[in-house]
Backbone:
């Protein structure tokens, strides 16, 4: 019996390791933890209940962006980190938000007050894989914040950071903006113009 429990624990740890220490009640059940066993592990302090049906290993030491892995697990892998939050991941600009921004498929029905959900079908070329979560590319992230009406000066700084670090080119940024949102393309052009020497 102890060997089985150790094996179960190893499998849970392996899964949680890929997800920033997080796992869902359904994932734990699939591994072999009954709901009664789950309640036991929470009351014993082995697992922290983060949200309804979402847990984290108690001994997990948080790493950079683990909070974003949480939302990937919460959304069952359907959410993509986007907008201001994505620019923060790319370390570009100073556009801030008190909430995590996620882009989800149009039919996505889950909600949480801690996140801002944007509904869109993202092109695969607009997504970058990180360890445990997906994030929009720097170019798509800039287009998204521009489409949402970002401050032009803040947008210009973010564009400069992205260009200076070689994360995209002006041509790629302009092309993506024109393909995704005409209003965003205009705002991006104005922001680029402020960067150009007079």
Residues:
């Amino acid at each position: 019996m102890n060997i089985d429990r150790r094996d179960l624990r190893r499998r849970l740890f392996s899964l949680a390791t890929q997800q920033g220490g997080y796992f869902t009640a359904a994932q734990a059940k699939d591994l072999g933890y009954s709901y009664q066993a789950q309640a036991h592990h929470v009351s014993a302090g082995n697992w922290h209940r983060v949200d309804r049906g979402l847990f984290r290993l108690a001994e997990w030491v948080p790493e950079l962006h683990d909070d974003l892995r949480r939302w990937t697990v919460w959304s069952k892998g359907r959410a993509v980190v986007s907008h201001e939050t994505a620019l923060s991941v790319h370390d570009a600009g100073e556009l801030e938000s008190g909430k995590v921004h996620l882009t989800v498929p149009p039919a996505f029905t889950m909600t949480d007050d801690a996140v801002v959900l944007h509904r869109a079908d993202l092109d695969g070329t607009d997504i970058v894989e990180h360890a445990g979560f997906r994030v929009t590319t720097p170019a798509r992230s800039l287009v998204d914040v521009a489409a949402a009406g970002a401050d032009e000066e803040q947008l210009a700084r973010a564009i400069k950071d992205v260009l200076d670090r070689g994360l995209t080119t002006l041509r790629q940024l302009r092309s993506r903006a024109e393909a995704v949102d005409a209003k965003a393309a205009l705002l991006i052009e104005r922001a680029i113009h402020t960067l150009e020497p007079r």
